[in-house]
Amino acid sequence: MSLDLSPMDEARRQIEICNACRYCEGFCSVFPAMTRQKAFADGDLTQLANLCHNCRGCYYACQYTAPHEFALNIPAVLAEVRVESWERLARPQAVARLFQTHGVAMAGLLVIVLAWFFWALTAFRPEAGAGFYAHLGHNTLVAIFVPAFLTPLALIALSVRDYWREVGGGRVRLSHIVSAFGSAARMKNLSGGHGEGCNFEKGDRFSDRRRVFHQLMMYGFLLCFASTASGTVMHYALGWEAPYPLFSLPKLLGLPGGLMMVVGAAGLMWLKLKADPALGAARVWGGEMAFVLLLGVVALTGLGLYAATGTALVGPMLAVHLATVMVLFLLMPFSKMVHGFFRLAALIAEAGKPAPAGGGE
């Protein structure tokens, strides 16, 4: 990539060359989308970058990569533009930039501080309660976590609104939402367009491992979220308070969800260590690794807390687990968690645009 151009201008240069070649048109959603125009505004490039899943198949298929004078590296330049869009549209921007470059240290420090905070709170034990509610009262947890969850979601909503305006997203129809969710559920764009998988982990070797680990992480997270939601309904609507037995909805959803998240996080970290950093946004490697590690630790400490039931370890395990969950919530607008919201918005916007000329998808 040219060192004389900004990431946006370098992306424009490379995309215009790609658009003239069109060899990779069927690889993923990026390539048919780019065929709609010959000139690309900044918003167009932001949209293409957030459609990109960094599968890297286009790089290994391209005849214009270095040492060719065009020196194309579409996965890397779109990764730079994508990360820049997350940073630029985040509130506050300074926190987003700090996390991207110092994510492991930032998340680790916050977990330590908040773990001590929750451990200190356990000194004020409620007069009644069972399970972990014997250490921290239900109302105390609600008072702490509701604003810690809703405030980041509000910040993300503002960022997605600004993204939608920037990329020129139009009127949303139900069919657009169904199409986008269907693509996201199957992780269609991680198949490389040919169904053999992507090239993330090793050169021109196709593999579905990254897709599988992403699906384990995503569906595991959704199961854990559903577990928490079902426990909330049971508490408030049915008057059934935690702790819940093994064969109850919160446990039947949460335990497999937690295990899936642990396996997914371990797999994604393993692949990231194997992958070529030159084909991604190398400057934010630490922030991306911190995000995956944080998700894995949230799941692992949740499983550990359940395993520690009835022992003296419940108090310290609860403090660590609540700290990791809180950090995950607080960093949502700045970590790679936001990519799910931006990518879904990109898929919805793409579904609402006319089919590209020339027979693209």
Low-confidence runs (pLDDT<50, min 5 residues)?
Answer: none
Q: How would you describe the shape?
A: elongated
Sheet-strand content, in percent, reads under 5%
Radius of gyration: 22 Å
- The rounded distance between the terminal residues' Cα atoms is 28 Å
Helix content class: 55-70%
Pattern of helices and strands: HHHHHHHHHHHHH
Which structural class is indicated by helix and strand composition? mainly alpha
Number of helices: 13
Average pLDDT, to the nearest integer? 88
Number of domains: 2
Major beta-sheet overview = none
| Strand count | 0
Protein name: Tricarballylate utilization 4Fe-4S protein TcuB
Keywords: Membrane, Transmembrane, Transmembrane helix
InterPro entries: Citrate_utilization_prot_B, NarG-like_sf
Transmembrane segments: 98-121, 141-164, 216-238, 253-273, 285-307, 313-334
Descriptive overview:
Keywords: Membrane, Transmembrane, Transmembrane helix. This is Tricarballylate utilization 4Fe-4S protein TcuB. InterPro entries: Citrate_utilization_prot_B (IPR012830), NarG-like_sf (IPR036197). The chain crosses the membrane at residues 98-121, 141-164, 216-238, 253-273, 285-307, 313-334. The protein is 64% helix and 0% strand. By secondary structure, the protein is mostly helical. It has 2 domains: 7-85, no CATH class; 90-351, no CATH class. The longest helix is centred in the middle third of the chain and has 30 residues, at 138-167. The mean pLDDT is 88.
